């Protein structure tokens, strides 16, 4: 695996420099879950990523030998990307990140649901004739006749 040099001399720093780039983990998860994938398919599976950013990320991962690029000599040209043996070593970590993300997402959804239920309950208990608003004080109007 060819990782960029670390200014700290730390192998973890070198690996994180590659993996921490924008969209990188998402690209690796897509390749792990879908297998070998063409550029256009990857782009469609990741709404919001530009062609330029996807190209940069793929080149960076290819340079680090985490993914491979296969170019078929056809017309039109077909290029597919997939995980190398080193890239497949990351699959356990990617699965754990995915599991953690699902769990946290479910916890967040439950918390939001509980908060919404509490707000609804509070509105019901405050459901007086004036609908929980502070009553307006009437002012007496005195008209003096001369």
List the helices and strands and how they pair.
Layout: H1 11-19, H2 24-34, E1 37-38, H3 39-45, H4 51-63, E2 67-72, E3 78-83, H5 85-88, H6 91-125
Antiparallel strand pairs: 1-3, 2-3
Task: Describe this protein with a few key phrases.
146 residues, mainly alpha, Arc Repressor Mutant, subunit A, 3-stranded antiparallel β-sheet, 6 helices, 3 strands, 10% strand, elongated
Reported by name, the CATH topology of one domain is Arc Repressor Mutant, subunit A
Count all strands and give the number.
Answer: 3
Number of helices: 6
Shape estimate: elongated
Main β-sheet, spatial strand arrangement: 1-3-2
Biggest beta sheet summary: 3 strands, antiparallel
Strand content: 5-15%
Query: Which stretches are low in confidence, meaning pLDDT under 50 for 5 or more residues running?
Result: none
